[in-house]
Amino acid sequence: MIVISEVSKWYGTAQVLKRCSTSVDKGEVVVVCGPSGSGKSTLLKCVNGLEPFEQGRIVVDGVAVGDPATNLPRLRARIGMVFQHFELFPHLTVMRNLSLAQIKVLGRSEQEAVDKGTRLLDRVGLSGYAHKYPGELSGGQQQRVAIARALAMDPVAMLFDEPTSALDPEMIKEVLDVMVALAKDGMTMMVVTHEMGFARQVANRVVFMDKGEIVEDAATADFFGKPHSERAQMFLSKILQH
Amino acid sequence: MFGNFDFDVIARSLPYLFYDGMTFTLTLTALATMGGLAFGTLLALARLSSVAPLSALAAAYVNLMRSVPLVLMIFWFYFLVPYIGQWLTGAGQPIRVGAFASSLVTFTLFEAAYFCEIMRAGIQSIPRGQVAAALALGMTYPTTMAYIVLPQAFRNMIPVLLTQTIILFQDTSLVYVLSVTDFLGAASKVAQRDGRLVEMYLFAAVIYFIISLAASRGVRIIQRRTAIVR
Prior knowledge:
The structure holds 2 protein chains of 2 kinds.
Chain A: E1 2-11, E2 14-24, E3 29-33, H1 40-47, E4 55-60, E5 63-64, H2 72-76, E6 79-82, H3 94-104, H4 110-123, H5 139-151, E7 157-161, H6 169-184, E8 189-192, H7 196-202, E9 205-210, E10 213-219, H8 220-225, H9 230-239
Parallel strand pairs in A: 3-8, 3-9, 6-7, 7-8
Antiparallel strand pairs in A: 1-2, 1-4, 4-5, 9-10
Helix pairs in contact in A: 3-4, 3-5, 4-5, 5-6
Chain B: H1 8-47, H2 52-67, H3 70-89, H4 99-124, H5 128-136, H6 141-171, H7 183-194, H8 197-226
Helix pairs in contact in B: 1-2, 1-4, 1-7, 2-4, 3-4, 4-6, 5-6, 6-8, 7-8
């Protein structure tokens, strides 16, 4: 579904991604972790073309992201993305947040879009919030709306960029629950997160990045059991202590 | 000290002052605001464009407009527009342009430069994540601008835009240099005809004060109503 091969990226002279290669198969959940500044969010944003990259190749569902001939809006419409800071549109109601892109991008009718939005709000446990504005919702609720907004486009894969790291601790679970349910439904997911419990529970593979490199790319059990790189061992020992 | 003042002159000239004068002033203000806002938004988009010549051109325009006194602009346009019109249409002689049309063009072009800067600040105040979220949903750049960025930018900018409009309302009085009957022009004509300069100019000042003050109070109310809950 997502194939990343030999991707390198520079900000000026600073190289932020170094020949990164990995893949996410259909129905697979891959967790990307690593210390901050390791390039994991940047790699994720390369997948739907929000960040350009200078070298290498990324193919999503048969479409080459870096190819200038690629219709990026059309490709992005098929890849859901959830952001660290939710990025709901604050001037629109929850329902309008869910329906706008369905109408403007997919050409669905208002009725179809609202029906779809209603079903998804129900699925993330927020029916009854359709007419609220994002500012009236808690962080956890906003992130669940953001997930519903991405799902409304019927994506072939979902990208999560640290979806819980801006949340208060008591709200993390409600968002992870939605993500776990999504994974169990067979959604293809690439998730940048520090939530190792989530990784253990649903990830097929864990990709560990450090300083722009993919240091380890292993099946979940292997990664937590016996990571073979020293850097991954150190990262795990720090993050799993508490 | 008001003993030898004749305030009756005001009462006698009220229909002329408001029906002729104020109508002109308000129409000019409203139309120039709308035109300036539309053109100013385009200018702002051009200034923020990644196409270098486009943004340089827009920047040059804004700087030029903001560096020339408005009175001079009003004069220039009044004398130039007929010739530009002749050149554009290929007519045999300068086309006749009324003072209203000429001042409308001037104020629209002039205000566009100020609205451009306000809009530019407004657009830049929208977090980049909002644009990323819209693009990630598959929206094109124009759709993102039209439905996500500009509506939020406008809401943030409403107080400044309306304040600029109030300034425009006062600035339209400069059309007196074209001997146009705007509100101040009407007051001025009555003042000269009846020799009641102090009364008429005092009255005009009071009216401008009342309208501007009421409008800025209105701005504050609108500001509270349109604020986005964050």
